[in-house]
Amino acid sequence: MVEDGLREIRMIANVLLGIMIPFIGTALGAAFALVGKKAAGATGLISGFAAGVMLAASVWSLIIPSVEMTEGTGVPAFVPPSVGILLGMAALSALDVLLPTSGKSSKLLMIAVTTHNVPEGMAVGAVFAGLIAGSEGITLAAAMSLSIGIALQNVPEGAIVGLPLVKIGAKKSKACLMGIMSGAVEPIAALITIALYMVAVTVLPYLLSFAAGCMIYVAIKELAPELGEGKFGMAGLGVGFVLMMVLDLAL
User: Fold this and answer.
1) pTM for this prediction
2) Cβ neighbours of residue 225 under 8 Å, at least 6 residues apart?
3) Calpha distance 57→212 (Å, rounded)
4) Using CA atoms, how far apart are residues 245 and 247, in angstroms rounded to an integer?
5) What's the count of helices (H) and strands (E) in the chain, helices before strands?
């Protein structure tokens, strides 16, 4: 009885930590506003690593578990992944059309980044919902790795919200706070996704594959252009992909 209670407490603590990690990444990026500089030389490496983690996580932590959870339900195994992936990519594509970030004011940029963070929060919530459910193929290490990958790509997002505000004369502390606030929706979206799973367990395969679609879109559309910056972008992509694969297959 005591061991079960301790196990449940550890699970809750791990889930709370996991859904907060991406928010921490945004906050770290927003902190660049306090010094007024970017770590530009590391952009390619960080983006490549994050893209590699996301692509690997899409396959091993999201798509494969979605297929495995569908087996024996009477629904063709390819349906949830197909529907979820296409909806996830369509959702972010629509956001790009509705909230373009180029040439816009700093306030609109914050709105755009904040909105883009919602599906990422859902992705984290979906994989931790799978962990809570004890889904085969979803381990704590894999879930945490996905959170870290999203946190890495959130660092420049937090920076691009705060830094423009500094350039137009805003106080550094206010600019930093605005950048941090843009990431606050991620843990909220994650908790809502977990709660949705608790209400309707059958939606989890769709949530996992929806998250995969979002991750694939972010990795290719938003991070791929950054891979060319510096000498180590593709190296980071390879290391991130292999590391995530090893964590999923070995642990």
Assistant:
1) 0.66
2) none
3) 8
4) 5
5) 11, 0
User: pLDDT tens string for the chain (251 positions)?
Assistant: 667 677 788 888 989 999 999 999 888 888 877 775 544 445 566 666 667 777 777 787 778 888 887 877 788 888 888 888 888 888 877 877 776 655 455 565 566 667 667 777 888 888 888 888 877 667 888 888 888 888 877 877 777 667 666 666 677 788 788 888 888 889 998 999 888 877 766 787 888 888 788 778 877 776 666 555 555 656 666 676 666 666 655 65
Orientation of helix 79-98 relative to helix 204-217, angle to 10°: 50
Q: Which of 138, 134, 93 is nearest to 116 (CA)?
A: 93
Instruction: State the residue range of the domain holding 151.
Output: 2-34+41-250
One-letter amino acid of 197: Y
Rg of the chain over Cα atoms, rounded to whole angstroms, equals: 18
How far is 162 from 178, CA to CA, in rounded Å?
A: 6
CA neighbor of 121 nearest in space, from 176, 61, 189: 189
**Contact by Cβ (8 Å): 162, 30:** yes
Spatial separation of the C-alpha atoms in residues 62 and 191, rounded to whole Å = 18
Q: What is the number of structural domains in the chain?
A: 1
Amino acid at residue number 140: L
Backbone phi and psi for residue 32, each to the nearest 5 degrees, phi listed first: -60, -25
- Crossing angle (nearest 10°) for helices 106-133 and 79-98: 170
Q: Are 53 and 195 in contact (CB under 8 A)?
A: no
